Amino acid sequence: MRKLTDRSAAFIADEERFGAHNYHPLDLVIEHAEGAWLTDVDGNRYLDCISAYSAVNQGHGHPRIRQALIDQAQKSTLTSRAMRNDQLPRLLKKLHDVTGYGMALPMNTGAEAVETAIKLARRWGYERKGISENAAEIIVFSNNFHGRTTTIISASATAEYRRSFGPFTPGFVFVPFGDADALELAITPNTCAILIEPIQGEGGVIVPPEGYLKRAWAMCKEHEVLFIADEIQTGFCRTGEMFCVDHDGIRADIMVVGKALGGGFYPVSAALADESLMSLFQPGDHGSTFGGNPLGSAVACAALDVLIDEKLAAKARYAGATIMQALRSVASPQIVDIRGRGLLIGVELDRPARALSYALLERGVAAKDTHERVLRIAPPLTINDDEIAYFVNAFRGAIAAS
Ligand SMILES: *Cc1c(COP(=O)(O)O)cnc(C)c1O
Asked: 52, 96, 317, 365: which could form a disulfide with 394 (CB 3.0–4.6 Å)?
C-alpha cells in the first residue's frame, strides 16, 4: 500500500487553491518519471498505464530524446517562422519518410493540428470541390474527442465539453460512430470532409466494427469527400501499427498527429497531407509562433527515431496481446467488456471505474477512468514482461478488492 505524507497534501492543496479546477486528477504528485515508472513526492512508485494520454509512447525520459533536447537547447530553441532553422527541414523530411505524406504543417498541440486540418478541408471544399462560400460541412462522430478549442468543441457531441461555451462554429454534421449507413446518408454535395478517430480514445476506447473504416474511406472516395484521420492518440505505434488506419489498409487524405511526436518532452503536432492539398495554404494563411521551432523539431526527430529503431509497433502488438489475454482470464461480474488494439485497451465496468482506479493506485499502478465506466490501460510501449506481470497481478488484486 502506498504511503502519503503531508508533502503530497501540501502540493495538492496549493494546486487546488491557485489553479483552475478544470481537471479531476488522481491524487498522486509525481516528482520523477523514467521508462514505465512514476515516483511520487513521497517515494511511492507506480507503473504508468496512462502515459500522458499516449504522449509518452517511448517511455518517460527516454535517454536519446532527452539528449536531443539538451543538445538542441544549447544551440537554438526558437526562431519563429519569420526565418528558417536547421532542424525543421530534418523533421519535415523524417515525417515524409515515416508517413509517406508529401508535406507536413507543424503546430504544437493536438487541437491546433486539428484546427489546421479543418481549415485545409474547408478551403479545399471551396477552391477545389466548388462548394459555395460558407456552406462547407464536415461530418463528425458521436462521442468524438478532437480537443478543446471553441471550433473543436463545436464539433463535439459531449454536453460536458460544450456547456455554456456557445455560440458554436457552424458547419459540423453529427453521425453515430460505427454506423456506415448513417454516414452515407449524411453526405451531401456540401460535405468537404469527415473527421474521425480510428479508435475513439477519450470516448472510452471504442473500436469501430470490422470493415467500417474501410467503408467510410471508400464512401469518401466515391463522393469526393476528404477523409481526415485524427491519429493524435492512436498514432505512432500505440495500436500495434505505426498508425491505426494501417490495420485497415487505408490512407487518409489528411492525417493529424501530435502527442507521442514530442516523445513526452515537448508539444509537437502536425497536419499531414500531400502537396496537391497542402499547396492550398499560401504565405500568411495560417501559422504559429512556436510551430516548427528548432527545439521541438529536434525532439520530434529523436522521438520518431526511437519508435522505429526500438520497433515499438511490434512491442505494442506483443504486449497488448499479452495483457488482453490476461485480462480476459480475470473472472469478475464487474467487467462488461474488454476491448482495444495494441496497447490502447479499455475495460468497461458495470459501475464507475474510479474505485478500480484507486484500488490500482494502492497496488502501484496508475490507470484512469475515461467516460466514467471505462478504465483505459495504455502504458508506454516499452513495457517489458516483468512489468506486464506486475500490472496483471495488481489488476487481479484491485478488481477483487473494489
Ligand atoms: C489528445 C487528443 C487531442 C487534443 O490534443 P491536445 O494536445 O490536448 O490539444 C485531439 N484528438 C485526439 C484524438 C486526442 O486524443
From this structure: 365
Q: Look up the pTM and report it.
A: 0.98
Residue 197 Cβ < 6 Å to ligand 1: yes
**Cβ neighbours of 337 (radius 10 Å):** 13
| 267-301 pLDDT tens trace | 999 999 999 999 999 999 999 999 999 999 999 99
Residue nearest to atom 10 of ligand 1 (CA): 146
| pLDDT(205) > 90 | yes
Domain ranges of the chain: 6-58+311-401, 63-309
Distance CA 251, CA 17 (A): 47
CATH number corresponding to 63-309: 3.40.640.10
User: pLDDT per residue over 104-137, tens digit each?
Assistant: 999 999 999 999 999 999 999 999 999 999 999 9
If one residue of 23, 259, 268 were mutated to test the ligand 1 pocket, choosing by the most ligand atoms within 8 A of its CB, it would be 259
Question: Does ligand 1 have an atom closer than 6 angstroms to the CB of 154?
Answer: no
Q: Output the average pLDDT for the chain.
A: 97
Q: Is the CB of 110 under 6 A from ligand 1?
A: yes
114 lines ligand 1 (CB under 6 A): yes
Active site amino acids: 145, 230, 259
Burial 371-396 (b: 16+ CB within 10 A, else e): bebbbbbbbbbbbeeebbebbbebbb
Q: Is the CB of 299 under 6 A from ligand 1?
A: no
Task: Decide if 227 contacts 252 (C-beta within 8 A).
Answer: yes
Distance 155 CA to ligand 1 centre (A): 13
Distance 244 CA to ligand 1 centre (A): 15
Cα–Cα dist 329/258, whole Å = 34
